[in-house]
Amino acid sequence: MPSAEGWWRTAVIYQVYVRSFADGNGDGIGDLAGVRSRLSYLKSLGVDALWFNPWYASPLADGGYDVQDYRAIDPRFGTLTEAEQLIEEALALGIRTIVDIVPNHVSAQHPWFREALAAAPGSPARERFWFRPGRGVDGDEVPTDWVSSFQGPTWTRTTDADGSRGDWYLHLFTPEQPDLNWNHPDVRREHEDILRFWFDRGVAGVRIDSAALPVKDPAFPDLPAGEAAPGEHPHIDRDELHEIYRAWRAVADEYDGERVLVGEVWLEDAERFARYLRPGEMHTAFNFGFMSQPWSAASMRASIERTLAEHAPVGAPATWVLSNHDVTRPVTRYGRADSSFAFDRKRFGTPTDRERGARRARAAALLVAALPGSLYIYQGDELGLPEVELPLDVIEDPMHFRSGGVDPGRDGCRVPLPWSGNATPYGFGGSPWLPQPDDWAALSVEAQERDPESTLHLYRDAIALRRRIPDLADGDVEWLELGADVLAFQRGDGLLSITNLGSAPVPLPAHAGVLLASAEIEGLLPPDTTAWLALREGGTATSH
């Protein structure tokens, strides 16, 4: 575990989607008991921290991102006492805990919103949200033309106590997720209290969901015809956000051991992105740009250079991630003709070459692990799991339904993990809430533990080397020009990472030994392969 001071700058952080990690009570739903039973696995993987998707009481209209009560664990996952035990047990193994906070909205079942719906139009209870009269005759038209992050409208009309049609309320996601009004002091005070509630229980940080969305233009203008000026979009990246996160940072700084703020910030403007990472605001923010790139040396290098450049002025470390609970898994994505990622291009039946995708996903794992900053691993990527195309009757993700059934949604990357055995549920627990494929036996933890060439062993070796080799700590990247299809860079004076993204083998530059490789190397570096080369004597060859 990195030392307390600056631990987050180079940490390896493992994302736990509780519902699909491990089932401790046999009901087919992952839970905290399941996570606690697998802490030794996470310790052996070598991770420094666990980031948990929302584990709070929730109707699960959007996988838990519709929070009903931040101070209670959803009973399907366990109890608050179990969460406290998990935090303590993980820390005893040298593993910190990061929890998810969703400031943009709450569940429609949250006590505040239920009170608001029961109150009369214009009542103080409604001021914590955004209730507005409609436009047009009898207010039948939506108040703005804003578009939901999940496609479709962003306003839902209420019904008043007398049965008449009432005001509309804003929801940038689903109607079950009403947006909060961050101009209201109750909203600000409540979230600062939530931070303290979890910091008091030992969590090391919070991941801030949709961090650029909570503040709205109170005038509620329609969307601009063209590109909005920086800070002037009606509901994205408003300047007032920074006051909120400075207050959150002040709360985090009240505690010992560096409690961190990690932002989910999707912004194209590098200067606007960096503002969230200024001293006194967030510690780090997710790097979605690299995760979206196709299997192309030019595209990936440009993304890496841009990421490092936008972090440099504020002295914040970059973050590197290949996938998460929202994104098509790398094994599937990298095997497609279009290996980039965009939500609006997800479709059923998109063909993929799974073998090629698996090779590339392994190579990409080593590539990002060699970069300076912190590394995020989404559960199952260390097993090389592919995306699962699920039957229509088991899909729960609202993105699928709000697209009119065109988008397969995100459930395909949320299928429960295979732990052992030759058939479903592969040691997960009870009959899993999403069906597992019949061909996952070879991908189980048990099977990969026995195979020294497995993806699981590759991840373990890479994480161990990150911790052992000083050149892989925070620092600079020095690029080498070894061909248009090759990404090669030096870390310090002792290590060189080289990735062949082309279709033909390439020669290796001068080196003292192969420290780690994603595939077997016989003189030349094969296509879709990454190798870490020692530049000083003493390097030990390891290939997978």
Number of strands: 20
Strands ordered across the widest β-sheet: 11-10-9-5-2-1-13-12
Low-pLDDT segments: none
Can you give the mean pLDDT?
Answer: 94
**Gross morphology:** globular
Note the beta-strand portion: 15-25%
Q: How far do the termini sit from each other?
A: 26 Å
Helix coverage percent of residues? 10-25%
Task: Characterize the main sheet.
Answer: 8 strands, parallel
Task: Name the structural class.
Answer: alpha/beta
Our count of helices gives 15
Q: Nearest-angstrom radius of gyration?
A: 24 Å
Summarize the structure.
The chain is built from 15 helices and 20 strands.
Plain-language structure description:
- With 544 residues, this protein is α/β, with parallel strands linked by helices.
- The protein is built from 15 helices and 20 strands.
- The protein has helices at residues 18-21, 32-37, 39-45, 80-92, 111-118, 185-200, 241-252, 270-275, 288-291, 297-311, 330-333, 354-369, 398-402, 445-449, 455-468; strands at residues 12-16, 49-52, 56-57, 69-73, 96-101, 131-132, 155-159, 165-170, 205-208, 260-263, 284-285, 319-321, 374-378, 478-480, 486-491, 495-500, 506-507, 513-517, 524-525, 529-534.
- The strands form 5 sheets. An 8-stranded parallel sheet has the order 11-10-9-5-2-1-13-12. It has a 5-stranded antiparallel sheet with strand order 14-15-16-20-18. A 3-stranded antiparallel sheet has the order 6-8-7, with no helix packed on it.
- β7 and β8 (165-170) form a beta hairpin.
- It is globular.
- The mean pLDDT is 94.
